[in-house]
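User: quick one - fold this with pyridoxal-5'-phosphate bound?
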Amino acid sequence: MQQLQSGRHFLQIPGPTNVPDRILRSIERPTIDHRGPEFKGLCFEVLEGIKEIFQTREPVIIYPASGTGAWEAALVNTHSSGEKVLMYDTGHFASTWYKLAIKLGLDAQLLPGSWREGVKPDEIEQALSEDKDRNIKSVCVVHNDTATGITSDIPAIRKAIDKSGHNALLCVDTISSLGSIDYRHDDWGVDVTVGGSQKGLMLPPGLSFNAVSKIAIAASERANLPRSYWDWQDMLKANKEGVFPYTPSTNLLYGLREAIRMLLEEGLDQVFYRHGRLADAARASVKAWELELNAVNLREYSNSLTAVLLPKKHDADEFRKVVLENFNVSLGNGLGKLNGKLFRIGHLGDFNEPMLLGTLGAIEMGLELSKIPHRPDGLRAAMDSLVNKN
Ligand SMILES: *Cc1c(COP(=O)(O)O)cnc(C)c1O
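Assistant: Sure. Structure tokens for the protein plus pyridoxal-5'-phosphate:
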């Protein structure tokens, strides 16, 4: 049996994130009739409120599902069997979405990436320009690849699509950036945005989202991939009446209502600023330790997580185990081909300076216990960064 560890567990993986008490209390209620009058009020409120978080006026569909469900929904609603999809390999999440597209019978192409840099818009532009017959139906990219700690420039990708004169849809996964890194569904001209509950939205896992443009809805009227549970049309029709086509995650919707209130009370600009400030401090620590960030381009550094490479011969999973067993702090593992090579610090969601310093302190002690070469100056550097940038 595992020994009891006192104090709070630090869940510093880049999602699921720590759920604030306010949200936990809002979920802890009797479940209500999801076709009754009380539910209608909740339903309309969250459907309106969530638009502000996606920075959109278009409908946002809420699924009782993990993020993967919303990935699938984005594809099956907009494509017909065998259609071409253009994707870009920014990390494990981009490549997993690609595999899902292949399983659905789509002709997906994954432009190769180094997993250390974001999407290169000129490569998207070139691929679209070469597609003379306009067979590519959509460009699907991950805004913030949670496996590699890299944020791609979505407006630049939109521009690249427009420059090529191509009419492909733009679909963006914002699961680990929504509510932590600035994201604008409307201003950035995105057709389908995929979101999830358990990262920047500070909720438990179990809800996911599709924000959908008019162009995407029009495409869904022609798309013939089989779909039932994920069908936007059924959902949009039911949502107009304040209901779902099936039983929604009623209690998680209470949580979502609270999460939206919290984000708007703090103000989205302040939320994004706070994430940037904490991320800067985390990166200052990594630099001071003389360890290597996985992301190589400054402008692509993720503000929701930091992926840190360990020197060769040191196993990142062994290191994470030391930190968990000694200090009750969970860090993210290396996914896919990065397994064992890096660890990830989640600094998104309900998070502040002392939580960050606690996390970084546990990491610094873990580096020492694991005999991983480093300079023991990380905490000082993080504190300096926080004090100097208010
Ligand atoms: C977490 C995550 C997913 C997967 O979401 P699940 O809820 O695990 O299905 C997809 N994309 C990104 C960028 C993520 O961070």
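One thing worth noting: The pocket of pyridoxal-5'-phosphate is lined by residues 15, 66-68, 93, 142, 146, 173, 175-176, 196, 205 (CB under 6 Å).
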